[in-house]
Amino acid sequence: MADPPGCCAACATCLLCPYSCQWITAKKEKRKGLRTTKCDCSWFLFLFCVFLFTLVWLYFAIIILNDLHNFNEFIFKEKKLWFDWSLVLLIATAVLITYSSVLLVLALCLQLCGQPLKLHWLHKILLILTALVVAAAFTGLGIKWAEEWRSAQISLQATGPFLHIGVMGGMTLLAWPLASFFYRTRNTGLKVFLLLVYCTVMIALYLAPLGITSPCIMEENQLPPKPALVGHRGAPMLAPENTLMSLHKAVDCDVQVFETDVMVSADGVPFLMHDEELTRTTNVQAVFPERAALNSTAFNWTDLQQLDAGSWFLERKPFHTVESLSDDDRYQATIQRIPSLGQVLEAAKQSNISIMFDLRPENHSDYQNFVNATLGVILQSGIPLQQVLWLPDGFREQVKQQAPGVQQVYGRKRLQNEKEPLLHVNLPYQDMSSEEIRQYRQDNVSVNLYVVNKPWLFSVLWCSGVSSVTTNACQVLKEMKHPIWLLPSSTYLMIWIVADCVSFLTILWAFLLLK
Length: 515
What we know:
By secondary structure, this protein is of the alpha/beta class. The chain has 21 helices and nine strands.
């Protein structure tokens, strides 16, 4: 097979070497009579599918980063091992997508040069392993972290218009190697099949914008107000979570609500702690090694005050932002102790910030006494009750009677024929659609969604009209003055028409030029 114009023998040889793992000159190739067989075509199709499969996983990996801290906490709870798994996820994904991309580019260039697609057996094995690894990753995601599928659906509202342009551009460029193959092969049936498949895909892409919806396709004057920020355990990227330092850092980020978790000590003192055990966020293993595995509520307040609640933050570096802390912040972190609810309420009152909390663990046999102790501290603190947002469902009616000024926040959607209308709801961001958010907003129901860390997600929820979001990254979202993108529908329509025309003319040019 002669090299087509513009493709020298040296170039063809350099392409064949990494793809086929053989140094075959064009002259030797002609002598051996090598050509692309049906088996070779099948392996090229498999390579293309693996590339697409890996590309989809790359997209999921980027989306998962918003919630990966939850995964890190889950692994610590199960294995008592802290590690930033985002590094593993990104590095492994980058390796897989780079490998499959390079092979695919080599194959397409070989086709344009009229060279045989003789994929080496080692590449075949590695491609199969790549497919298995990605399939295992998707399976694990579906079993252990199913809510991320809904995260991916939400992400399409942020990326849909741009993904459409990208896919259409890629498919348009594919017209060149496809046209080359179309004019070289003598198999009429294969020609018709490939052309029909390609045309069907392109027509679908040309019409795809009809089905793409995004809350950020709107006019500038229709944009709702920026959602208020709720600090998830304070500002956990800037200070140890659930500490007074974290509260003060959250105040510096213009956070309006400090979200936390409350437990009650063995001697009846409510204090801040998220985990059932103290091992992740204190040095309990060093101070009380024989009691480290006990529930947090098994310790009295005197014992809890002996624990260091900040040094772990510098040692384990739960977020990359720890590296950039100032010397003063590092020192402040080392002197943090577990704060009592009373101390936090006093700080919230002085900072004029609201506090929203869960009371844990709700399945405890002494839970009613926990509620009574917590209510007692709230009423004695002197904080305006409207600054307290009550999340726990247990004994809610009792709370309404003893502290009627406390704002009741519900962790569920409203029901039909609700006796008492819900004024505040607090839900995972995956649990509410843009349409539901708009409806709640029209009905004056405050909607807080958690945990929102990435600007793309914050932008989608901002355009949807959510009231507030709970976040680990208050220092990032604070700086956002506008959604990442906002596109008037007329502009989007113009981009759609221009992109379709350019794509069609490019494909037509490719088939006419290579004829």
